[in-house]
Specification:
This protein is mainly β. The protein has a single domain, classed as 3-layer Sandwich (Rieske Iron-sulfur Protein). The strands form 3 sheets. A 4-stranded antiparallel beta sheet has the order 2-3-4-9, with no helix packed on it. Strands 5-6-7-8 form a 4-stranded antiparallel beta sheet, with no helix packed on it. The chain has a 3-stranded antiparallel beta sheet with strand order 1-11-10, with no helix packed on it. It is globular. The C terminus is likely disordered. It binds FE2/S2 (inorganic) cluster (FES). The site of FE2/S2 (inorganic) cluster has 10 residues, from loops.
C-alpha cells in the first residue's frame, strides 16, 4: 500500500479531526482521546461532501449537504444508504502522519484490493 505524508502530530493539538484531499477525495484523520489516530474516508456516499464539515456528535456525523448520517469510527451509514465509509491505513513516523493513498480493502490491510 502506498502511504503519503499528510500532517504532523502537532497539527492536532487544538483539534481532533482534519481532512485532506487524496486523489480528489476527502480523507479524515482523527485523534482519539488516548492520543492514537485513525484515518477514514470522509467523502459522503451521496455526492462526496466532506463529512468533517458536518455536525459531529461523538462518533456520529451528519452530512452538511443533505443530512445522511454515518458512524465515523465503524464507517457504517446510519441514514441514507447501505454503502460504508472505508478505513485508510495510517502510520506515524516520528512527528509525521502518513495515510494510505487508497482505502484499505475490506478483507485486510495488507493486500491491495485496488478498487474504490
Ligand atoms: S452529499 Fe451527503 S447527503 Fe448529500
Amino acid at each position: 500500500m502506498q502511504y503519503v505524508k499528510v500532517a504532523k502530530v502537532g497539527d492536532f493539538e487544538q483539534t481532533h479531526v482534519r481532512s485532506y484531499r487524496l486523489l480528489a477525495r476527502p480523507v479524515g484523520v482523527f485523534k482519539e482521546p488516548d492520543g492514537s489516530f485513525y484515518a477514514m474516508e470522509v467523502g459522503c456516499k451521496h455526492e462526496n461532501a466532506d463529512l468533517t464539515q458536518g455536525r459531529i456528535e461523538g462518533n456520529m456525523v451528519t452530512c452538511p449537504w443533505h443530512g445522511w448520517q454515518y458512524d465515523l469510527k465503524s464507517g457504517e451509514c446510519l441514514r441514507g444508504t447501505t454503502a460504508r465509509l472505508r478505513r485508510h491505513g495510517l502510520k506515524i513516523e516520528g512527528e509525521d502522519i502518513f495515510v494510505t493513498l487508497r482505502p484499505l480493502p475490506e478483507n485486510g490491510p495488507e493486500s491491495d484490493g485496488g478498487a474504490w
